[in-house]
Amino acid sequence: MRSGGTALAVDIGGTKLAAALVDSGGRVLRRNEVPTPKTDVADEAGDALLGLVGSLLADADADADRPVVAAVASAGPLDPRQGTISPVNIPAWRGYPVLEQVGKVTGPMPSVLLGDALAAAVGEQWCGAAPGSGSMLGVVVSTGVGGGFVFDGRPFGGPTGNAGHVGHMSADPLGQLCPCGARGCVEMLASGPSMVRWARGMGWPGREARQLADEARAGRPLALAAFAQAADALALGIVAAAALCDLDDVVVGGGVAQAGEILLGPLRERLSARAGLAFVRRVKVHQSALGNSAGLIGAARAGFQRLADA
Amino acid sequence: MRSGGTALAVDIGGTKLAAALVDSGGRVLRRNEVPTPKTDVADEAGDALLGLVGSLLADADADADRPVVAAVASAGPLDPRQGTISPVNIPAWRGYPVLEQVGKVTGPMPSVLLGDALAAAVGEQWCGAAPGSGSMLGVVVSTGVGGGFVFDGRPFGGPTGNAGHVGHMSADPLGQLCPCGARGCVEMLASGPSMVRWARGMGWPGREARQLADEARAGRPLALAAFAQAADALALGIVAAAALCDLDDVVVGGGVAQAGEILLGPLRERLSARAGLAFVRRVKVHQSALGNSAGLIGAARAGFQRLADA
Question: Which residues, listed in sequence order, are joined to residue B150 by a DSSP beta bridge?
Fold first, then answer.
């Protein structure tokens, strides 16, 4: 069933580095991951990345598995045209030439770089929760709130590759200043750490969004309120995205979205309350189907598209 | 300098119907307009439209001026694929097959239908305030607040043709209900009638946004406050659009924008205050250069693109 070899897909985040061989049907053939090194030295972090990729390739047991394209999804900011990354949570890398470095291990082959949330959206639209969707927003609710658009089956990164930043539009115009410099960003209300911070401010003794989800599932009012507030902020972001971009589907993933209906139930309720125009109301909300493989699978898809366009 | 004939461009609004012959360089060769008929009868309104188009074509004095494509921009809602329009402010037309009707006057030729705010954006990106912009939002501030995106030189209408509705995302999550059903829409704060309604609620005796602009120009505090509030709502919408779509340029047009720096000055100030991330802050704001010809010129551009794609 396979044709045209595999994609080497890499997913770079503040917590872990993952690499996989993904075939042209979106199947993950093998996958390795390591914790993201805690270092300020670019080459030390680079050695961990290149070692990860090298061991994956060394283990590839058949010619059919050999990659024909290298596709990197990364936390931002990044510069897709230069092939460089400067992830906020990986201080070792500022303007790190990730495509060039990965190329040292793979040898010469076409390559592509895109944002991790955009890659996740591409994966879900390819073979995840919204396969074939014509106009889709993927939202990643995790330590931050990221997003990415897929229009007509193609990642939409915009001129700088930064499109889809649903976490940094304002859900509360009079709200708290966000580290980004804007006020009341969606991320300030809906990310895991933001929910925990709010709950702790109300006297909750816990430390993890996961505990908050467990307590919400048990019906504890404070935890339910934290999810209700996050859901409303996400609904404002999704309504804006739907009014602006005419969406068919939204896929919600990331660690916090693993709470499932604890988040998606209130989110659908708030969307119904907040969406006005018919074309905005029609948007369908899905939970991620690919979980933490979405970025790898979507990066691979972008790689195969790059090959097809060449 | 002309090549390939002209486009017959039509712009359908609640106040007037306009038609023009536009050449492939974006020049308006001739133009007619009539008030939008006050009738509930589809054919009566249709007669006015077809008469307008017919007289324009009858006057076309040279073969070189003859249209090779018909391009209609219309107030929404509309269905670009079906070629039908149901403008909120033209009750005579519900599902009116405007492309088919115009075709009765022009004879068989390719045709295209798009939203009026989208057409205006296309015009400004073609030969107006942001020529060649790679990623642009056009905002029309008038009796409502509309918008349209042009990405990579192409109109971005989305699957239903409704993309760009910056007026119907929330700028005030706890604000007044909008007729669309959502709460605190940008349009509820920034349209001409909304500004007048707010000022009158504060005791202002006037009735027209134009008077409000005159008074703001004269430094009257209430009028300045009305523009400041509208500017902040527009800034929230533009920041959201920039965070989501990675914009290079925003062009602001429509009747209220004729106030010029009375609106654009506070708008730039609020954008500076509200935009956080570097790629959001880089967006440049321009006043419309094409005025009320933007929709006709942009429709023509979309028509020529349709021909080129065929």
Answer: B136, B155
Q: What confidence tens digit (pLDDT) does each residue in A100-115 have?
A: 999 999 999 999 999 9
Q: What is the pLDDT of residue B65?
A: 84
**Minimum-distance CB partner of B169 among A156, A165, A240:** A240
Q: Which residue has the tokens 């930064």?
A: A162
* Mean pLDDT for the stretch of residues B47-76: 90
Decide if B73 contacts B295 (C-beta within 8 A).
yes
CATH number at residue A42: 3.30.420.40
Residue B217 maps to a domain: yes
Q: Indicate if A91 and A179 belong to the same structural domain.
A: no
Backbone torsions φ then ψ of B100, nearest 5 degrees: -65, -45
d(CA B102, CA B87): 16
Does B277 sit within 8 Å of A181, measured CB to CB?
yes
Between residues B61 and B270, which one has the greater pLDDT? B270
Domain check: are B152 and B226 in the same one?
yes
Please check whether residue B71 lies inside any domain of the structure. yes
Contact residues on chain B for A239, CB-CB shorter than 8 A: 169-170, 182
Instruction: Count the domains in chain A.
Output: 2
Helices vs strands, H then E, count in chain B? 10, 12
Q: How far is CA B299 from the centre of its chain?
A: 11
Same domain, A158 and A283: yes
The pLDDT of residue B2 is 43
Judge whether A120 lies within some domain: no
CB pairs under 8 A between A and B: 133
On whether the CB atoms of residues B135 and B245 are closer than 8 A, the answer is yes
pLDDT in tens, B171-203: 999 999 999 999 999 999 999 999 999 999 999
- DSSP reduced 3-state for B83: coil
In terms of domains, do B150 and B106 share one?
A: no
Provide the token pair at A10: 């890499």
Q: What is the pTM of this model?
A: 0.95
**Inter-chain CB proximity A182 and B274 less than 8 Å:** yes
- Any domain includes A234: yes
- A178 to chain B nearest CA, in Å? 8
CA A126 from centroid of its chain's CA atoms: 14
A133 to chain B: nearest residue by CA? B159
Query: Domain check: are A77 and A207 in the same one?
Result: no
Residues of B within 8 A of A178 (CB-CB) are: 276
pLDDT < 70 positions in chain A: 1-4, 61-64
Look at residues B162, B171, B174, B192 and name the one whose alpha carbon lies nearest to residue B81: B162
Higher-scoring residue by pLDDT: B65, B250: B250
pLDDT of B1 over the 50 cut: no
- The pLDDT score that the predictor gives to residue A27 is 96
Q: Are residues A235 and A258 in the same domain?
A: yes
Mean pLDDT of chain B: 95
**β-pair type (A6-12, A67-74):** parallel
* Measured distance CA(A268)–CA(B20) in Å, rounded: 46
Which domain does B11 fall in, by range?
Answer: 6-119+293-309
Q: Which residues are paired to A136 by β-bridges?
A: A150, A249
